[in-house]
Amino acid sequence: MPRFPEAPKKPALVRAANRNGTSSARSAPERAPEVWDLERGTARRALVGRDDLEGPHPSRLRREPTGPGGSHGDGADVQPDPTQPGPGQRWSTWRSVAKGQRGPDPQPDWLVTRDAALDTELGILKTGKEADAFLVERAVPLGAGPAPAPASGEADAERCLLVAKRYRSLDHGQFHRGTEYTEGRRVRRTRDQRAMEDRKSAWGRAVSATQWADAEFVALRDLWSAGAPVPYPVQIDGTEVLMEFVGTEVTDDAGRTQAVAAPRLTRERPSDDLLESYWEQLRHGMAVLARLGFAHGDLSPYNILADGERLVIIDLPQVVDLASNPFASEVLLRDCRTVCTWFAARGLDVDPEALFADLLAQAF
User: Fold this and answer.
1) Percent of the chain having pLDDT more than 90?
2) Boundaries of each RIO kinase domain copy (predicted)?
């Protein structure tokens, strides 16, 4: 079973990619996003607002003929090969990355690791200042042959949903507070460290972009192993981090399965009991971070998912080293005040100064 059991939420439509794989920008709040209907090959307008970036995404692996009457454009009744990558697809990259670039053991039962699996990009989940998150379906298509006998401790998984977080270069990113977070960080090769310090060089900018992805993957790996409520980090490949999709799947009236991402905490209005449970879960997650020597650095209700009755902390590229970063105490205190403000506004008696002191005690 997955480490975090699914807790279905009320579906909310998500902005998805266009047919050519790009996402149309919205300049006004009243403009509804496009959801790409992969079954019908059409785009439709969803009645959602600008901030509704969560769920659902249609899921389809097998491609259909595109011409009239179920044929291709030349009129020939040629069925596409379901075992070959098509538009928006690639072979699973699990085996192409080094072992140290994969998630920690034991691997979750739901994770697909077969070489025959195809990664299908279903659309965009969220855009950010330094990266964009895409929904990816990793599945073994029909016709790819029987699944091998599972090894001891492994499940016969054939399909899973992942999030591909792809970092932009410094030339295209909008996140300009990097020094506050990267102070005290070091990279393995001194040549790369010197390049990062020279922001005018193309190599330095490329290494800096990779550093953000590396920082998030390492933080997720360590936190997952320590029992913190974070998505499972599947793998890292350059500036792309693949991780667990947090959410559930629903079936609409037409019988199509759709993925619905868990909403951000800021959108929730929990009951008193659930609010207290959320607070205890968040305190636990922040305590695990502190014991590992980290502060989140940008913790807020926008970077916490409410997956039913559980919280999941996301967006960790800017994790701050509490020992080596001179801004660490200031950053940690800011995190405490931000989350306490949200809980206090909903009637829970919380003290950011007490939380800050408790986390420092656990860190040192």
Assistant:
1) 49
2) 93-362
